[in-house]
Design goal:
Elements (H helix, E strand, L loop, with lengths): L2 E6 L4 H11 L7 E8 L2 E8 L2 H10 L7 E7 L14 E2 L5 E9 L2 H10 L10 H15 L2 H11 L2 E9 L6 E6 L4 E4 L4 E4 L11 E4 L4 E6 L2 E6 L8 E4 L15 H7 L1 H9 L18 H6 L2 E6 L1 H18 L3 E5 H4 L10 E7 L5 H12 L3 E6 L5 H5 L2 E4 L12 H21 L4 H11 L2 H9 L3 H9 L5 E6 L3 H16 L2 E6 L16 E5 L6 H16 L3 E7 L11 E5 L7 H19 L18
Parallel strand pairs: 15-16, 15-17, 17-18, 18-19, 20-21, 20-22, 22-23, 23-24
Antiparallel strand pairs: 1-4, 1-10, 2-3, 2-4, 5-6, 6-7, 7-8, 8-12, 9-10, 9-11, 11-14, 12-13
Bound molecules: fructose -6-phosphate.
């Protein structure tokens, strides 16, 4: 949510900032704005809607050619997404400009206090209060960084704030609490952004900022302090992907590129984790084998698609690692009283590592002394810092809002963890674990095979673009796959879609079946006789009631042919790995159907890539 860019250097700031905002568009937003400082004068421009509207505004209203500036894409929380509420917000005199991501929870009290003190607030946002508070603090300190520290000490909630002041054209100040902000370190120029994509075209050297830290960005360097003004510890890192990874590379949409990248992404998640002796080594896990042997319960917390990866993880962990495993929506977890102890391992799955609900769940678990393991894609994000250990998925940047390659690589990460625990705890014979690892290593090829056979799926999707509703059914690990297929269709095609456990059908959902209703059924491998036979019966039941059956089954599974109006074949793989091959057709289906309806699949309406507020 909300994209933030700050720049100070030698180039025209407006160009750098608008280009950075364009690279952050994927985060989801409904208005955009910029501020530029030149010769002691601060100028801003902002517009509701997409960047194209801001660009039009900039064509009408020429901003000065300063070399210091900042920009913002806003995902509305407080106040409608209109020009007035768009960021930047300024103080009474127009000398301080502020952009913000997050929610300032005590803003109503702060606003009342400011108004009582004579400030005139012009928007409905929580952000504007900060501009006026900085105005007051600047009047006494004259130092923007010190003013920011003082203001932050009074704020409650989650925020990334970036501010500039007309009195200093070599200073951008940023601060963060529970919301992302990274520094890009250049040569004679420096950057601030919500994520590295905004400045990757200029530098791959970044600094991770910690909680409650304030950064002063000048052309010549970067200083980071805590809220008391003491020098703070930071972590510098080099981004391991380049600008081409953040571009579409000839595809019409990032989503298409990311779907196509899945074999490579899956291979990269496995890279370096299978030793020459066929045993797993998970170096960054930082939870010792002794601690893993003591674990007596695993709880997985995640949101959305990552939650679906967690649901699949449960099957793998219980089967291989022999440990009880619960999976919980992160947004619900902290509002219950989950029973955790020092021997509970909590695994948080988050592509972005910035999802507020996931971070809050991790903190809730930390308070109860559980061990914490993160599965994350974004290096430098908050989640890995808050966990004892991490397994990076190495999927590369995922720009499309709907998660695709992140999901498949999360699955590989949870398989690795489950097999690693089995290896450490000896819950499966060594040769069984070894055999599974060998099969897992073949998955990039299997995913590639699926991608090569997707034309009939695209055709099917186009033919169903006029439907109102699609149902998805699965059993065992096919159930979370059904949930994921339905989520993809909802978010991209804005269509009613629901996933069900096929066994639940007769307990209610079968009433939804009417003639012609498309129902997509994920069939388990034939080797799982009981499961397989049960789902074939379910297909017959819905077909008898007129449903149009679209069946995803192992190639050569002739038993389903008589009941399938459309049959989509996927390569035969072990049951627990089947989601890697059955999810791909569902991603392609949703993407093609949404495109046929004329939707922008990279930026679905109302959605943000990383949900940084609760
Ligand atoms: C759906 C989707 C979302 C995310 C969810 C969690 O396609 O992308 O449901 O999976 O917002 O995001 P992360 O994994 O970044 O915590």
């Amino acid at each position: 949510m909300c994209g933030i860019v700050g720049y100070v250097g030698e180039r025209p700031a407006l160009d750098v900032v608008v280009e950075g905002l364009a690279r952050l568009e994927y985060r989801g937003y409904d208005s955009a704005g910029v501020a530029v400082l030149a010769d002691g004068a601060l100028a801003t421009a902002k517009r509701a809607g997409k960047l194209v509207n801001l660009r039009e505004a900039l064509a009408e209203q020429t901003l000065p050619a300063g070399t210091l500036g900042m920009g913002h894409t806003r995902w509305a929380t407080h106040g409608a997404p209109n020009d007035r509420n768009a960021h930047p917000h300024t103080d009474c005199g127009g000398n301080v400009a502020v952009i913000h991501n997050g929610i300032i929870e005590n803003f109503a009290a702060l606003r009342a206090e400011l108004e009582e003190g004579g400030h005139k607030l012009r928007s409905d946002t929580d952000t504007e209060a900060v501009a006026h508070m900085l105005e007051d603090e600047l009047a006494s300190t004259g130092d923007l960084a010190e003013a920011m520290r003082k203001v932050c000490r009074r704020l409650e909630g989650a925020f990334t704030l970036v501010a500039v002041h007309a009195g200093d054209d070599d200073l951008v100040v940023g601060a963060r609490r529970n919301s992302p902000l990274v520094v890009g370190v250049g040569d004679g120029e420096n950057f601030l952004a919500s994520d590295v994509a905004a400045f990757i075209a200029h530098t791959r050297d970044a600094i991770e900022l910690g909680q409650d830290q304030v950064v002063e960005l000048r052309k010549a360097g970067v200083t980071v302090t805590d809220l008391e003004g003491r020098p703070a510890e930071t972590k510098a890192y080099h981004v391991d992907w380049d600008v081409s990874a953040a571009e579409k590379g000839g595809y019409d949409y990032f989503m298409l590129k990311e779907i196509a990248e899945q074999p490579r992404a899956v291979a990269d998640t496995l890279l370096g984790r299978i030793g020459a002796d066929g045993r797993l080594t998970l170096d960054e896990m930082r939870i010792s084998d002794r601690e893993l042997r003591e674990v007596d319960k695993i709880i997985i917390v995640a949101c959305g698609t990552s939650y679906h990866a967690g649901l699949i993880a449960k099957y793998a962990i219980e089967h291989w690692a022999g440990l009880p495993c619960e999976v919980e929506l992160a947004s619900e977890f902290r509002y219950r009283d989950p029973i955790l102890s020092r021997t509970t391992l909590v695994i948080a799955i988050s592509q972005s590592g910035e999802t507020m609900d996931a971070l809050m769940a991790v903190r809730h678990a930390r308070e109860q002394h559980a061990k914490l393991l993160g599965i994350c894609n974004v290096n430098g994000s908050t989640l890995p810092r808050e966990c004892d250990g991490v397994l990076y998925t190495h999927a590369g940047p995922e720009i499309a809002v709907a998660s695709t390659k992140a999901f498949l690589t999360q699955l590989v990460a949870v398989y690795l963890i489950a097999l690693y625990i089995a290896q450490v705890r000896g819950t499966k014979f060594g040769d069984e674990v070894f055999a599974m690892i060998q099969l897992l290593a073949q998955m990039p090829e299997k995913v590639d095979e699926v991608l090569g056979t997707m034309e009939p799926v695209r055709e099917l999707a186009r033919s169903l673009a006029g439907e109102k509703s699609v149902l998805f059914l699965g059993r065992h690990v096919g159930f979370p796959v059904a949930l994921e297929g339905a989520l993809k269709l909802k978010e991209l095609a804005y269509m009613h879609a629901e996933g069900f456990a096929a066994g639940e059908l007769k307990h209610g959902p079968i009433a939804l079946i009417e003639p012609g209703l498309p129902v997509i059924v994920v069939v388990p491998p034939r080797s799982r006789d009981v499961l397989h036979d049960k789902i074939v019966s379910n297909i017959q039941e819905i077909r008898a009631r007129g449903a149009r059956t679209i069946v995803i089954a192992e190639e050569g599974d002739t038993s389903v042919e008589p009941y399938a109006d459309t049959l989509i074949g996927v390569p035969a793989v072990p049951t627990l790995f089947q989601p890697l091959v059955t999810t791909v057709p569902l991603q392609v289906f949703a993407c093609e159907l949404a495109t046929a309806k004329g939707h922008d699949v990279d930026q679905p309406r109302n959605l943000a890539k990383s949900v940084t507020v609760e």
